[in-house]
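User: Quick sanity check before I run a bigger batch. Here is a single chain. Can you write out its predicted 3D structure?
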Amino acid sequence: MVFNSITFLIFFIVFFFIYWGVNNKFSIAVRNLFIIISSYLFYGWWDWRFLSLIVFSTIIDFSIGYLLSVKKNLFYRKVLLITSIVVNLGLLAFFKYFNFFIESLNNLLISISLHVNITTLQIILPVGISFYTFQTLSYTLDVYKKRMEPTTDILSFFAFVSFFPQLVAGPIERASHLLQQFHVKKVFNYDLSIAGLRLVLWGFFKKIVIADNFGILADSIFNQDSSIPGISVMAGALFFALQIYADFSGYSDIAIGISKMLGFDLMVNFRTPYFATSFSDFWNRWHISLSTWFRDYIYIPLGGNRKGKFKTQINLLTTFLLSGLWHGANVTFLIWGGLHGSALILEKKINGKLPKYIYAPVVIFIVILLWIPFRAESYSHLMDLSASIIHIKQYSLTHLFQIITNFSQIRFCILGIVCFLFLLLEYNMNRSDFNTWISQKNKTIRILTYYLLIFLIILIGNFSVKPSFIYFQF
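Assistant: Done. Predicted structure follows.
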């Protein structure tokens, strides 16, 4: 079940009215139980078999969190923490990386003339496993570090882990922020619901109009088997940059908006990242819930920037390599993460030596180019795409014009104008969100904006693609 589907629309309308009825007439425990059952229905719509993984992970971390508050002996506490890490990352590693490591081992053995073919398995990746694994693991780590007290309310904890708006693609919430919200009675707030609806509308606009249209253009370039001209590859990188941002941030806006309508506050996940002025600024704006997770649980524990320049560089590179690996079991993601880590290291050396009006556009240009390894299907595919960019003689516009013609030239022109206005609005938001920006306008402008977004969704929204979101695969 995905947000941009009729099934979810029906599900949420029914859930919304029952939820507020249950919340007003029954106890917090009953309300949380209703959230859990509904969230399991939402998740189980894909595959009921994988619900057992969420239940198992939830029980493990709830139990370990409780035991950490009881056990005072440092040895036992470390054993409990290691158990949580091994169980959570072990499940993630098996479902997400088992075949990747087996294939890598086979290639390594072949390279040293040992032809031992270790068999891979037909493993289905459970939707959202990377997100809820990091969410539950952060709870255990915070309890171990005594940053928060463990909860004794098992229903609240189950609801925290399974909360359907952000279950399958984030934001990756911290227990210190979200868990406590399940402990209190909710009161329906009209203004909060309107704020949520604004974000939902903005999220659907980004997803259906921007992401799904540019997704077709990006796929028409990157899914070709034959050699692609360099100019087309660079255009494809731009199309994919717009697709992945509008797709993922659109999902986050919808998740945050739905949560507001239910009385819950989720963290902001994007702050207009393509208007960043440096690589570090970009990562302070892009997928904030993940980048701060890696900062707090990987980079800082490794030593952060406290142990000299060389160690800081190693810590940065390690963190970004792991961040790349989190996105998928493919060497291309490691390359993407490694290049971003390297860019941050280089940035620390040249910081302040270039004027911002020169450096900022260069940063965004490189960020867009670095989406190529992220989008590439394999290492060999990445090498082919890179070779096309390097060979200047292949910079023919004919192929790109054909792609646009197949898409529809008129539709592409309209999309280009809408995208320009979209980016202009994002620039005016200035690290804020759509709800904050539009709430400061007068009533006439607000209403006209709502109708314009709805009109654009109907006019050029792409409803031909299968409802899905890019980050479901991670």
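Residues 74-111 form the longest helix (38 residues).

User: Great, the batch can go ahead then.
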